[in-house]
């Protein structure tokens, strides 16, 4: 097979990987948290059943809503698929679209989906939608500068913001893994993942009270196919962020080094294994921490910002 | 040697993170835990430097730091100011936490810049390039904690962070200090904790609180 055709095929495998396993991650995380809390919990395949059920149901759309309400689930569903073509999901060498966009482009794609979801939440006139949307924007505008500084810190270390290059620069040796800047960027990015994915301590994903929700009240008005696309899109966004976090920043190993089919397919269980370990850590974090009060979120993200500044400073003065 | 330098850099990053935690953390008990982790990072750095430089003195520094700061200080504080640490939740701050972390970032940059001429002057010490600025950052952070917290126990943590920072910088520069000097310096720490702890206890006994930042106002009211 031609190299280009093979790269496109591997890209399609990455998209299939994202589509197929994203609901599983949510199911495993929910089950792990229930186990830690001493409950039995639903099956790890529950998100798949939910999606199946939602796709089979009728969709009800408010008469007051506009085209944005119907357009937002499609954007929300499509953006993670674009993102996974830019990042090293299964391979550690650049694929077909790798140089079409860097990590800042990944941020832009996610913000575009966040923008439409927030608009759609306000579109229907549901009282809780605008509350959730404005809170999501608040967390978003606090998190975005931190993302920017984190990417700058990464580009200082790797001389690039292309995720494949960053991954390769960490994977070089143990000494580069132990760099102070690496540790600091990792800690800051962990805080960002928690804030951006609306996990505890920023937002309670299992919460049922609409007045306390931040990100989860955005899709209250959706039903049927729209709800399924929103749910699946959120699961895929979570998985894409985890891929950036694990494959690019924290553990740049276990990816396919050659374009052979065997190598690429063997990378799937390895990446899933890394994700399982991270989900266990996340479940422990989520069960031990309480939710922060809304105006304490700025403190949480200010700490992440300053840690990123440290990472940049330690590179700039040339000691790390 | 390169591995030791890399490992020491990693520990130094943890050291700065835990110092930042002492500034950022609102809860008294978490502040104490972060201070203990901070001392553990100092111990680890001393062990790494001890192996890399083949210096027995640094192992003594590690042992003394661990016993005084990780074991003795929490015990002494539990005895002298237990109710203040284990029953209170939140610590008052003069500035809001986002402001104080931003100031902390500026302090860290100042420390890096100020340390540069010194680092260039002592190029024969391989670990000084990392430890000297890091120790200076911890000294600045400790001083800042003392300034910004209104709470006597948290201010004590700030003083101890300053002391740890000075140790962190000095182990990379002077690694052949005689043990008696190190013991003398280290014994001061639990004694300082005990004295301040007893002071906190008597302040608490008289005024019913330990928010020393508010005590100035009491005087003016008369």
Automatic annotation (TrEMBL), chain A:
One GO MF term attached to the UniProt entry: lyase activity
Location within or outside the cell: Membrane
Keyword match Zinc-finger: no
Principal subcellular localization: membrane
UniProt KW keywords: Lyase, Membrane, Transmembrane, Transmembrane helix
Membrane protein topology class: Multi-pass membrane protein
Keyword Lyase found: yes
Residues annotated as transmembrane: 6-25, 67-90, 96-120, 141-162, 174-195, 238-258, 264-285, 297-317
GO cellular component term of the entry, any: plasma membrane
Xref: Pfam families: NADHdh (PF00146)
Record protein name field: Formate hydrogenlyase subunit 4
The organism of origin for this protein: Eoetvoesiella caeni
From TrEMBL, chain B:
Primary localization: membrane
Keyword flag Nucleotide-binding: no
Subcellular localization, as worded in the UniProt entry: Cell membrane
Membrane topology category: Multi-pass membrane protein
GO cellular component: plasma membrane
Signal peptide: none
Top-level taxon: Bacteria
Coiled coil (UniProt feature): none
TM annotation in the entry: 6-24, 31-53, 59-81, 93-115, 127-146, 153-173, 179-200
Protein's UniProt name: Hydrogenase-4 component E
Keyword terms, alphabetized: Cell membrane, Membrane, Transmembrane, Transmembrane helix
InterPro entries: HyfE-like (IPR038730)
